[in-house]
Design goal:
Blueprint lengths: L1 H22 L3 H7 L7 H11 L9 H8 L4 E5 L2 E5 L6 H15 L5 H13 L1 H22 L17 H14 L11
Antiparallel strand pairs: 1-2
Helix pairs in contact: 2-3, 3-5, 4-7, 5-7, 6-7
GO biological process, one term: DNA transposition
Pfam families: Transposase_20 (PF02371)
Organism: Pseudosporangium ferrugineum
């Protein structure tokens, strides 16, 4: 049994060295993709192995997401829109994006965590993870197309989208629904 474990360990070491040799020309892209929250070196290697570094074959990020099978589904019948399932897509890429999305949703004070929390309350955990994976893939497309670094939008991205007066009205209405009386004054 110990001999079998040693043989498997030797095989893993050999394959890891071979992967390192094959991915060496793309090392800069691997390091750049590893800066995305939740995407580790292994995830970046798998993503680049599946989609490549040349994004000219995908005109937009939506084309890449559709090919990968992480775009939102669409089911329409008789003019009514229902929740559809995602396409089958590339199974290795989908699995890797799922793992990266799960890790990214647990990071603190990041856009990916805010996106996960925003969607999970309405749609559930699995659909929220697919949406976060879609966001990661969109960011990857932009990074590889524009040769740029990852720029996190921040945890307050969704909070800062509303006008301050509108957000204040919404919060006051929530307090009124809970039975509280409020007096709102604006500070300078």
């Amino acid at each position: 049994m110990i001999d079998r474990i040693d043989a498997v360990t030797a095989t893993v070491t050999t394959l890891t060295a071979r992967i390192g040799q094959e991915i060496a020309p793309l090392q800069a892209e691997v390091e750049r993709l590893s800066t995305i929250p939740g995407v580790g070196t292994h995830h970046a290697q798998v993503i680049l192995a599946e989609i490549g570094a040349d994004m000219s074959r995908f005109p937009t990020a939506a084309h890449l997401a559709s090919w990968a099978g992480v775009c939102p589904g669409n089911h329409e019948s008789a003019g009514k829109h229902g929740a559809g399932t995602t396409r089958k897509g590339d199974s290795w890429l989908r699995d890797t994006l799922g793992e990266a999305a799960a890790a990214g949703s647990r990071t603190k004070n990041t856009y990916l965590q805010a996106r996960y929390r925003r969607i999970v309350t309405r749609r559930g955990k699995k659909r929220a993870l697919v949406a976060v994976g879609h966001s990661i893939l969109t960011a990857i497309w932009h990074m590889l197309t524009n040769d740029s670094d990852y720029q996190d939008l921040g945890a307050g991205h969704y909070l800062n989208r509303l006008a301050p007066a509108r957000q204040a009205r919404r919060l006051v209405n929530q307090l009124h629904q809970l039975g509280y009386q409020t007096v709102v004054t604006q500070t300078q």
